Amino acid sequence: MTTTATLTERYISATIRSLTPEVQDDVRAELEASIADAIDAKLEQGETPSAAERAVLSELGDPGILAAGYADRPLHLIGPKYYLVWWRLLKLLLWIVPVCVFGGVVLGQLLDGAPTGEIIGTAVVATLGSVVHIGFWVTLVFVILERAGTDTGVKWSVDQLPEPTQNGAGRADAIASIIFLLLGVGAVFWDALLGFFPTGGDPIAILDPGLWPWGITFFFVLFAAEALLAVVVYAKRRWTVGAAVVNTLLAAVFAAWSITLLLQGALINPEFLSFVFTDNGVTDETMRILTVITGFCLIAFPIWDIVDGWIKTARARRP
Length: 319
Description:
Helix content is 75%, strand content 0%. The chain contains 11 helices and no strands. The longest helix is centred in the middle third of the chain and has 33 residues, at 116-148.
């Protein structure tokens, strides 16, 4: 009986020690009665007292879990009430903030004239730091909300049910690509023939006239390939790995081609730069900054196009 009494007392003590003093006596009495009844039932089935008690206490489980049930205390970091809101917010921030941090640090380092290794290292460290901070602080906020029982104010309704958008999205992308192609071609001819800036005389093109005819033709071919890709995706009703690969190649070719021309001074019309900037007192340092910003945009937009294509492919491959 000594072993039996000791095991029971140890179990009850482990259960009630984290409870408030006001409820400890009641919980002790309840557990003593329920454990004794369960042991008696097993003794009637022919088990020995020692085996019966061990079986009963084992069935009750971890006393910490039992105590949490009495105290109505959660044993999870974030429960189902807040989990989906936490997960959706976390994914949204992890898509947006690290990308903005990386881009902002790279742009700042480029403007500062930092070497390539320092630019990459600083941007990677800052990006990883932003990921850690987002994960920690967002989770901490929701842990506090969970413990405090605070309502987040986010309510689900049937109005939030998404519409099937795969076909519509493909059609919209195809139409947008064709319209963008036509607008791009029109803008290039407008720039060459009429100009976008008043000069008081003959129009000054923004794009370097030396791009005509072969450079501009190559530019139009890339535009047409993007539009054709959008039509193919719409015809297949989904993004495929092949489409994503083609989209990546087109974006990479455009970025490499445009950056090469920019660095060679063959993308923007020198006469336009002189008319708008140099003749108005803009310094060489400011021109360097404008060149860096232009190059950054010529790289950032193709990267986003590549990422967007692979995201759509991943979504289309989900069962």
